[in-house]
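Q: What would this complex look like in 3D?
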Amino acid sequence: AQKVTQAQTEISVVEKEDVTLDCVYETRDTTYYLFWYKQPPSGELVFLIRRNSFDEQNEISGRYSWNFQKSTSSFNFTITASQVVDSAVYFCALSGDNYGQNFVFGPGTRLSVLP
Amino acid sequence: DSGVTQTPKHLITATGQRVTLRCSPRSGDLSVYWYQQSLDQGLQFLIQYYNGEERAKGNILERFSAQQFPDLHSELNLSSLELGDSALYFCASSPRTGRITGELFFGEGSRLTVL
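A: Here is my prediction, written as structure tokens for the whole assembly.
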């Protein structure tokens, strides 16, 4: 069975600090997909990134960066120079290579960025 | 705006009642997923449809049922409602077809309150 663990339940940082959200996954699939979603206080779920298992290149998008390490089954998310607007719950998710079945989410990490 | 439409946005009902939640996926998306998010909980996968056929089932109670219609919209039926069914119900659709899993785009959710 597929599983996603986000060990950090809540994180608080002060604005402009860097913060890393951890994500560890378990899967027996050789091809799989990893995702990050943001859920701000307004409640909607916003897609941030999709990464497939055969592309371990790290990605940077503005203040966001993602570090995918297959050797440790981790897909960590770093926010550089955090801002108050980054305050949200962040979910890591995993899906196998089978028509999108078993699309599972981690429990989420609540990030609070204080001014 | 993700392009996924859910109605109603809010619903208040009593225990024992039955409700129907509706979802219109993004234009062209064949996959529809339903998730339940209880207060301060993660996203629990309920069920997935692909082009009208049930593709995967998660922790969906027998009191709950869903279907996807020929026009690809989907409905989630919740019956014999209990207080514990109070939650935010999300619908999501995916732009990919075939085996490759694409990102999910979520609607704004339907908040169900059972009194």
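A: To summarize the key features: The CA atoms of residues 40 and 86 of chain A lie 8 Å apart. Chain A is about 0% helix and 55% strand.
Q: Very helpful, thank you.
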